[in-house]
Each structure stands twice: as structure tokens, then as C-alpha cells.
Batch of 3 targets.
Target 1
Amino acid sequence: MSLTHRIEPGSKVSLDDIDPGETGPYRGKDDPRVQRQLAEDVERLKALQERLYAEGKRALLVVLQAMDAGGKDGTLRHVVGPLDSRSVHVVAFKAPSDEERGHDFLWRVHAHAPRKGEITVFNRSHYEDVLVARVMKLVPKELWRRRYEHINAFERLLADEGTRVIKFFLHISKGEQKRRLEERLADPEKRWKFDPGDLPVRAKWAEFRKAYERALSECSTEWAPWHVVPADNKWYRNLAVARALVETLEDMDPKFPKPAFDPRSVVIP
Ligand code: ATP
Ligand code: MG
């Protein structure tokens, strides 16, 4: 049972049609099925990760995008944190450095794509180059409007070479963002997370919404689908992402390699 909204390739996304407060079949955080389901899925993920690593032939790239306070860090902590650190990497993309800006927008991203056997999670990604770059007018329109096609081709290349790509947009409401930002301000132990620079971005909520809808519509493909995750409830968001990752890895079905020797013929002296 899928808890996310997988975007059909070629469909036009309207985020207004997806309720960020959705909780699927669950009554609430205290529903006893919630903790059980998350614990089970995290265990499944660990087992699948082990098989992917042992097989060593394919990789998984997970893209996480959200507005500020959308829950990327919490998702990483709860869903990715428990995995084996040998073969999972998290890469956070900040505003590009001078050197990075000296290259095409995919240059810095490609370098961090996962190697075979591994899982890499992008905390922000090349999508910033059609989101913040577009809305904040960091690059001219002639440039960003061609990028959707380049992104699809890039992700196609990864897929052709053995990397599964799955992309999550953590969908929160503007009211929930306000609540979370206020909480950061009010709590001395969370205040360090408050970034006044998030406010000019919040002021452009509607433009970001439009830019997200365009990116989700143009770049949800058979080989690299977008999933919209209702994310006003942190517990539901974690469940939904874990579930989608389990489904993806189960579909990949990595296999332990056959030994190159006959194990029965080996005697340990
Ligand atoms: P936190 O939850 O810790 O604030 P964050 O992902 O918001 O996490 P920050 O260091 O606050 O991390 O923000 C990174 C900033 O870098 C974001 O404002 C993002 O829009 C910006 N950024 C990322 N990629 C690009 C890009 N390609 N071009 C321009 N800005 C970018
Ligand atoms: Mg930030």
C-alpha cells in the first residue's frame, strides 16, 4: 500500500489537489500501527540495503526536496539514520561555490551520484537549479527553461547505467511552515535552526509552489518518478518515505552474489 502520491509521467501536477495533512489509513500518531509499521519498514530497508551492497551491481539515488522546515532533516534522521553507514551517503547541496558556478549546473551533482552497491540521498539537489534559481531570478529564463530536459536526460543516464532514482517532495502547508518557524524562534534549543534568510523565500511561497509544480510535471519520468509526500504530520511523512523506499528496493530485488567457489569444498583449518 503506497502512502505517497506518485506522479504519473506526463501529467500536470496541481499541489492544491494534494492535502499536506493526509494520514492515509491511520487515525493519528498514537495509532499503534504507526510505530510498528515504521520499525518493520526500517528493518526491511536495512536488509534490502545489505543485499544491494552485496550484489554490488546497482545503486539507488534518493532526492529530497522541500520548502524550509519541510522536514528533510527529520526524514533523514528517522528513515536514513538507521541504515548501515558504510553504504549510504547523504549529500547536502548549498548555494553553489564560485568554482561550482564556473561549470554547468549538473557538474557538482554528477560527482556525488552513488557508486554501485550504494545508496545516496541528496538533501536538496539539481532541482534547486529550476526552483530557487528560477524564483529568485539567479539565472535568466533562457537558461532555466532548458534545464528540465537536461535533468531528464541526466537521470536517464543514471538509470541506464544501473542507478534507480526516486524523488520526494515533502509537501507542507504554508500554515505548518509558519508554525514550525515560530517554534524554532520560541524554543532556545531550536533557535539556532532559525534562518532569517528563509523569510524572503517564504514570501515567495506561491512562486515556489508554481516552480515545484512545473518541476514535478516535467521531470516525473518512468525512470525517475517524483513522489509527493503529505508532510504536515512528521510521523506520516516518515512512514510514507520509508514505505516508498522499501517498495523501490523490493522492486529492484537485489540478490546476494553466488560464491565463486564451492562452499562445501572449503575447510577452515
Ligand atoms: P536547514 O534545514 O539546515 O536550513 P537547508 O537545506 O535549508 O537546511 P541551508 O544551508 O539553510 O540548508 O540552505 C541551503 C541553501 O542553498 C538554500 O537556500 C538553497 O536554496 C540554496 N541552494 C541550494 N542549491 C542551490 C543552487 N543550485 N542555486 C542556488 N541556491 C541553491
Ligand atoms: Mg535553511
Target 2
Amino acid sequence: MIGLAMATMPTFAQNPIIRNQFSADPTARVFNGKIYLYPSHDIPPASAEDFPRKDWFCMEDYHVFSSENMTEWTDHGKIFDQKQVPWGKPDAYSMWAPDCIEKDGKYYFYFPDAPKTGFGFGIGVAVADNPEGPYTVLDKNIEGISGIDPCVLQASDGNSYIFWGAGRCAKLKDNMIELAEDTPTEIVKFGDREFKMTGVNCLNGLPSRQAEGPFAFEYNGNYYLTYPYVRNNTEVIGYAMSKNPMGPYEYKGLILEEWPDCWTIHQSVVNYKGQWYLFYHHNNYSPNFDKSRSACVDSLFFNPDGTIQQVKPTLRGVGINKATEKIQIDRYSSISDGASISYLYENNADTTKRFEGWKTTFAKAGSYVQYNRVDFEQGAAKVIINYKSAKGGKVTISDLKGNVITEVKLKGNNQFTEQTFPVKNSPKGICDLKITAQTQDIEIDWISFK
Ligand code: FUB
């Protein structure tokens, strides 16, 4: 059994949701009233000696995170790494997209890895008594599966189905670690070569160029198969519906459009406390290298006929911020001309400094950002603004009806410093904020009330 690293570390609201490391391929699951996140973990490329492919995914371990409010995430630390997989190549850096489900009080963590012998990927299982672990990695990978990106659907027909790779699916035995005896096989041609493939291809006949990352779920008598595929040059997330877990599936459209600057997207869909969410990733902290990605979340909505509304990714993300937190207004809900965001440490050669986050630059008088859903509870008496402005200036914080919460006069400074001001007219409860620069050339890192 592998011990937990116990590096519990809180991270905070907005997108991306994990702010202390890269976190790709986020699979979210609800266990015991909490939401758990099982992403993969991009790391900066290992040394050229260890990992010669500087341009490729470099992934050596898994972390698990949890949240009760969708705004504050706890990192429960590393659950295991590539050296702890008995059947895996210990230096392959190929710990790609995982999944985790619970059955009869046991937690089954499914993950791809490169096998010690042969080529491609196998899918392994690690088992624990708790969602955070400690996990025991099983000695062998699942026989019959060669591929990446496992997802397990526990269907209301009483069976569990494993999906992987480009939409293949097979039933699992009750033990959750072997394929059912009646798993079909078929011969599939790739160019001139023929391969014996296990299970069924649920994306047969559907838009599925370079498809990967299947995530299946059930809702209101329908099965949904969501998956990334290449529409033009990079991946989009599409989905298909069926009345049966193993299909046939009918293509229904896009859930998320492609990124201009990140080739992959990878998704999971989960209902937490009555709201549906789409988890996905983007290269927020790594604009020049799209193999260093970060998990994000936005709300997802169904139409009355069961189809899914396309999700427009936001920086604001989900959840409510307490007014007393550091409110990173660069994760805005909307922004005007003359205001823009950039990394706090953009010119620093050390790109790990990007985890310090962003700032908002108000270049023009009258420019603003709107930041929704801040909870003032019983109200606030003061506001702290962390800002930089050589000449200083004026900033107004108001609600969306135009009620001025406070208007402040910033002193000139040459580095980010905090200044505290009285709040003149505090809202109570949840309020959407508008932060307007009344003068030009002001940079704000965060604001916070007390
Ligand atoms: O993270 C490595 C691979 O990139 C995943 O397994 C794919 O789904 C894609 O996101």
C-alpha cells in the first residue's frame, strides 16, 4: 500500500482551479458528499537524459484534490508515481488521463501507463478504502485493453462498463479489474496493418478524427458519451447519446469548442449538489507550451430534450467568493476596452512564477472589470487593494445597479503594495462587483474586504 504524501494545500476559486501545479485531464467524482478531482499531472520536461522528448507530455505521478464548496480545493498529495507501478515502465513519464469510481466501499483508480515490455499503453488499477488513498497498485494491468484514457460508467442496468482510447467500451466483471467473459473482439485495420481490438467501438460512424478521452455518464434514462476529437486542427469536445451504455450512440454536437493555443482538451461531467459541471483543461499557466495544462470548471446545462448546451469557458469559473478572500479580479466575469490581464511576473525567466497569477491593467480612465458572486455576508467596513501605479489614481467599486460601495484614492507607488480604505456603503449578501479605474495606468493584483 502506498502512503500518502499528506501535502495538504488549499487552493482557491476561479479558473484554473488548481494553482500550485499543472493539472490536466480532470476527472471529477462525488464521494461521501464531497467532490474529488483526479487529474493527471504535467510536469516541466524531465532532463533530456531521462526524457528526450522535450515537446511531449511529461507525467510521472497522480495527485488527488477535494472540495466541499467548489471554490476551495485541497491537494491531498501524491497518490503514487510511475516507479510504483509493478507492470509499468518506471521512467516512461506516461501517467495519462485517469478515472476513479467507488464500489462496495472500495475506490478503484484506473490509469494508463506504458508497460515494461511491448509498446503503447496498458490500463492499470489501484485500489483504496478512501478516495484520497492510500492506494495499492495492482500487479497487472487489465488484460485485453491496450490504450489510454480509461473511464468507468456504473450504469443503472447494474453493470459497470469501461471506456478507453478512441471510444472503445467493454463490460467489466463484478471484481472491477477484469473484462467480462463475453467481451467481443474485432479486427481493425490501420493503414495496411490489422489489429485485434477488444470491446466495441462506440464512435463508429460518428465524427471522431483522433478521438480520445471518452467520458460516459447516465442522466434521465440517457447515456452520454463525451469525447475530444479533432474538428479542424485541434481538439473539440463533442458528445453522443444512446439508450444503451455500449451504444449505438448518436452524435449530438459540441460541448466545448477548440482552443486556439492548446491542442488537447479533456473533460468530465458531474452533478454536485444539484448543479451539473464540466471539468476541462487549458494551458492557462503555459501559453507557449501546450503540454503543461491546468484544470478548469464551468457550469453545464441540459435542454429539456436531454441535449447539452454548449459551454462557454470562463475565467470566473463557478462558486461564490467570500468578500474577505483575496478576490483576483483578473478572473473577471466581463472586461471593458482599456482593461487587460497579464501575468504578474511575465518577464521572469522562471516560468514557475506564473503560478503567482495575473494582474489587471487599467490603461484608460473609465475602463473596468466586472466580478460576479462575492458574498459580503453581514457587510464590510474596509477594502484592501493590492495595486501598482506610478502616479496613483482613483478607483470606484460599485454594484451593477451603480450603487457606489466605495471610491478610493490610490497613492503613487513603484511596486505592488496594499492600501486599506473605508467602505462607504457595504452590500450585504451576494453581490456582483464592478471595479472601475477613474484615472489611467493602474494595475491591480487583488482586492479584499474586511
Ligand atoms: O494528458 C495526456 C493526454 O492528453 C490524455 O491522456 C489525452 O486525453 C490528452 O488530454
Target 3
Amino acid sequence: MFFDILTLFPEMFKGPFSESIIKRARKNDIIDIKMINIRDFAEDKHNTADDAPYGGGAGMVMKAGPIYRAWENAQNERSQNSKTILMSPQGERLNQKMVNELSREAGLTIICGHYEGIDERIRDSIVDQEISIGDYVLTGGELPAMILVDSISRLINGVLGDADSCKKDSFYNGLLEHPHYTRPRKLRGLKVPDVLLSGNHQKIERWRKKESLKRTFERRKDLLEAKKLSDEEKELLAEIKSELKGEVDE
Ligand code: 9D3
């Protein structure tokens, strides 16, 4: 899969895209990420990419011309079509379902706004989808674009190593994760739950599923309500509820 990222600040992407899993996936040519500097497509001698808003007011607006030319150039350099995404506070809020759907595209062209906004005609002419990462105000679309690329990339075949790849289609899908422990067995008076050292894999699986359900029940009732529970899960949840009421003593 390829990602063409149109931005005024391509340097911002260097760190996150040059480490760990994304670094390896790029090196292995599983994903192809290109940062394109919108300023390179300005046409005046000062390489102006923004301007004051028509109608007046504070702040600057990103000019349509440089973005449009950068986009056209990016499209021409790829043999496959891509979907054009604008990172924007007014977009649809990103969630895992959108990430899953976008991971089936051949490529994405991602436009990052900075400053107050971009000339509306970019939306009208080339943007297919507008995405926000949540209801808080950032300084630009660059960090959201990194989050989008990261979340999609880990779903592409070959990006996660064998050890990580089971985390894609987790057994605990739709639930929060159970607690994890590693050595030592005792730390500052805190012990690892005995069941994890028992060697009884059936019991361990049941314990993990129960902890996963408990955590989701306590922290994210919304996730639990959205999930269709199996008979085993219903049984575990009933246990959890009665334990939390203090009706069962361990
Ligand atoms: C006062 C109006 N502001 C909208 C809330 C203007 C404005 C602020 C910050 C316009 C753009 C930005 C920069 N943010 C993004 O480009 C952005 C963003 C975000 O701020 N939060 C969550 N998701 C995203 S995606 C792009």
C-alpha cells in the first residue's frame, strides 16, 4: 500500500516513520510512504503556500493552487488510483472500522492542513473523505496523518512480525485487553497471579477472558453494549457482576 502525504512540514514525519514496525515495513517495501512538500508547488519567488482569508479575519488560509498541483503531481507518479483524505477537525471521527476499510485501498493521498484551514475549493474538487482523530484542537493535520498511516499500516499483510500478527484479529476482539505480566514473580511485594504460573492453559485462557471482560465492564460499558456476547462470555460477566457486588468471596 502507498501513502502520499501532502504537508507544509514533511520533517515532522521523519521520526515516527523511521522507527520500529513502520521503519521495517518501509525497508521491506510492504508500505511506501512519501512526504510531499506543498511549498515546492508554490509558484511565486517566496514559495507562498498561505494567504489572508477573503472577507477578513485573523489567521491564514492555505492556498488552493499549491495543494492542487502537489496532489496532481502525486497522482501522476502512481500507476494505481488512490483515495484522497483531508485531515480536518470537521471530519468524521476515526475509529477501527474506518481503519479496517481504508486498509483495503491500494493507496491514500493524505492532505494535512495547518493554520486555520484550507481554501474550500480543495474540498470541493479533490477530497473524497475528511477525517478527524477526536474532539481536541491540534496545531495541524500532521500528527493525525501519522496516526492514520500507523493504524492502517499494521493491518497490511507482512507489516507485523509473526509474534505480533495475532493481535490483529484478537480473540478478545471488541474488548479491552487482560493484564500482562513478565518476570520477576515478585516485585515490591506485588505478585503475579498464581493462575498464570499454573501451566493450565485452559484455566489461563478463562482467566484472561474474564479479566478482559471485567476491565471492559468497569471502564468501557459502551464497548460491552456494542458486542454480541457468547454463552461463555455471558457466564463470565454474570460471575464478575456478582463478585463486584460482594456476593461471592474468594
Ligand atoms: C477555531 C476553529 N478551529 C477549529 C477547531 C480552527 C482550527 C484549529 C486547528 C483548524 C485546524 C486546526 C488544526 N487541526 C487539524 O488540522 C486537525 C485535527 C485536530 O485539530 N483535531 C483532531 N483531528 C484533527 S485532523 C486535523
